[in-house]
Amino acid sequence: MQPASAKARESLKAAMARLADGDRSALEEIYRKTSAKLFGICLRILKDEKEAEDALQDVYINLWRRADRYDPSRASPISWLATFARNRAVDRLRVGKVRAGSVPEDEAAPVADKAPLAEDMMIDAERSARVHTCLEKLDEKPRDAIRTAFFEGRTYAQIAEAGGVPLGTMKSWVRRGLQKLKTCLERGE
């Protein structure tokens, strides 16, 4: 089961793809899901609500025109859009369209996106696949004990009781299984 943030990211990616194909309803969906964050970015840089609203409008107009340029392998949708919003707000600062009270251009720092980069997600997926491949190579008893302990969060005592074996035996199975797992992972099998 995917966490809510992963589902939201995938939903936004799908909407971006539909928008690139000319689906007008996708723009409305993207707006609903992103406008609050993007408005916050514009407002933080421009320090003026009206200016931030204008910058935000520019973001979505340009998004409509350039949605086909979004590459999901390079950035998450919200990262790409946040960069778009930041750049739009900074552009407004550069051309002097902003009223007094806005921040200088050099204070318009990039906005961090807490979502992992696509490259990091691929590396994590490869590691996960490698762990599961190595787990499958273990004998059944240690493999099941390790999965139960580490993926289900159960204690060795709980696993030993459920399996009807002494606690020391369960600990030995897990310890030997983890040693074999480590060896397998180090070999890159």
UniProtKB/TrEMBL annotation:
Pfam families in the record: Sigma70_r2, Sigma70_r4_2
Record-linked InterPro entries: RNA_pol_sigma-70-like, RNA_pol_sigma-70_dom, RNA_pol_sigma70_r2, RNA_pol_sigma70_r4_t2, RNA_pol_sigma_r2, RNA_pol_sigma_r3/r4-like, WH-like_DNA-bd_sf
Keywords on record: Sigma factor, Transcription, Transcription regulation
Protein's name in the database: Sigma-70 family RNA polymerase sigma factor
Ranges for domain RNA polymerase sigma factor 70 region 4 type: 130-181
Source species: Qipengyuania xiapuensis
Lineage: Bacteria, Pseudomonadati, Pseudomonadota, Alphaproteobacteria, Sphingomonadales
Highest rank taxon of the organism: Bacteria
Stated family: Belongs to the sigma-70 factor family. ECF subfamily.
Record domain RNA polymerase sigma-70 region: where: 31-94
Coiled-coil residues: none
Record carries keyword Transcription regulation: yes
Keyword Transcription annotated: yes
